[in-house]
Amino acid sequence: MNRLTLWILAIGCGVSVANLYYIQPLLAMVAAQFHVSPGTTGIAATLTQVGYAIGMLTIVPLGDMLERRSLVTLVTFTSAVMLFVVGVSPSFGLLAVGSLALGVSTATPQLLVPFAATLAAPEQRGRVVGFVMSGLLIGILLARTASGMMAAHFGWRSIYFVAAAMVTVLAITLRLVLPKSRPTHTEGYGPLLKSLGRLVVEEPVLRQSALFGACLFASFSAFWTSLSFLLAGPTFHMGPEVVGRFGLIGAAGALAAPLVGRFTDRGSPRTAVLAGFVLALISFLIFGLSAASVFGLIVGVVLMDVGVQGGHISNQSRVFALRPEFRSRMNTIYMTSYFVGGSLGSALSAQAWTRSGWAGVCMVGSGFLTVGLLGFMLTRRR
Fold first, then answer.
1. CA dihedral defined by 100, 216, 288, 135, rounded to 10 degrees?
2. N or C: less crowded end of the chain, CB within 10 Å?
């Protein structure tokens, strides 16, 4: 692991994972153009995350069976093609299908993170994963900012065309910079997928981390899916550019990622997960009291992003420490659960907004966090 490779891995995670989040600040504009309800446009955000979970379940395990550099290059280029397809979609139905396919093809980040863990020395794995994850988190947060700004000046489709060009350049760069890898699984694709179930049964830490991560990301997705509806509504009258700027505020979570990685190298990742749950719950209490306060929303965003992303990095550090030869597959299980949780959060958030407004959204987010905390306490007693 040299510094250039580390930076390329971090940047690659950020540029590629952004594909999943461009849609969130655009939901109100998409609803207006295609004449559909906010609840219906939420389907596009949900399908993107569902597709991501499908890609992780079917593509990411191949990182243990195939040469990773070639696999990463192919998957990254495919996602560039799908970004262009979403950008030219003439109807909401095709936009939804394209969003699903884009999610499936955005497997690059979850191939790069275990790649980084494999290249790192054991005593530095937490900080290396934390650094790479900081790139991924910045990509998640700045995706909303870039999307909102582009939409305000050039229309909502423009961000997809720009992103397609960026991801194409990324695919070429990864091919040139990344080292070759040696596969650790030689028994074929069928046995590869069957081993996922065996890992779930045999590794209790993996099961715990999957549950914790799913609950944390469900709350995160619940908030971001419906924020554009709140800020575009009669209380704030804000456009997509302002909505996107909230992603800059959430960059505090990304800045905290390397610090969390250092803490997990020296202390207890499980303690960091608990701290993440507590911070995220406090943030939703603030959100519930801030339906008419921009300042309250800003404070809540900072706390939520630090809590959710800190918990996520700690979960991954626990998982990557289990079995080196199964890292891609264990990351598949963890991240599939993570984004299944995110999909549920997005879906329930859009419906809660339609039925109960912002209060319903806050109930959905805090409900997922409560479930995760209960699971945490039960596993602690065992």
1. -70
2. C
In this structure, are residues 118 and 305 in contact, taking their beta carbons and an 8 Å threshold? no
Nearest CA to 71 out of 34, 32, 115, 129 is that of 115
Identity of residue 265 = D
d(CA 297, CA 250): 11
pLDDT in tens, 205-225: 999 999 999 999 999 989 988
The pair of three-digit structure tokens given for residue 56, joined into one six-digit string: 């992780």
Interval 120-136: pLDDT, tens: 777 676 678 778 877 88
Whether residue 118 contacts residue 248, with contact meaning beta carbons closer than 8 Å, is answered with no
Tell me the two tokens of residue 219: 């709350």
The CATH number of residue 87's host domain is: 1.20.1250.20
Q: Is 267 left (phi over 0), alpha (psi -120 to 50) or beta?
A: beta
Query: Is the CB of residue 71 less than 8 Å from the CB of residue 63?
Result: yes
Quick one: pLDDT at residue 35?
Answer: 85
User: Tokens at residue 176, please?
Assistant: 């040139």
Specify whether the CB–CB gap between 53 and 340 falls below 8 A: yes
Burial readout 262-283 (b: 16 or more C-beta within 10 A, e: otherwise): ebbbeeebbebbbbbbebbbbb
CB 237 within 8 A of CB 287: no
**What is the per-residue pLDDT across 54-97, written as a single tens digit (0 to 9) for each?**
888 888 888 878 888 889 999 999 999 999 999 998 888 899 99
- Burial class from Cβ neighbours inside 10 Å (0-12, 13-18, 19+) for residue 31 reads buried
Q: How much is the CA Rg of the chain, to the nearest whole Å?
A: 19
- What is the Cα–Cα distance from 122 to 220, expressed in whole angstroms? 30
Alpha carbon distances (Å) from 241 to 40, 142, 292, 322, 332: 22, 12, 19, 43, 34
- Structural domains of the chain, count: 1
Q: Give, rounded to a whole angstrom, the gap between the first and last alpha carbons of the chain.
A: 38
Amino acid at 233: G
Q: Which domain holds residue 235?
A: 3-381
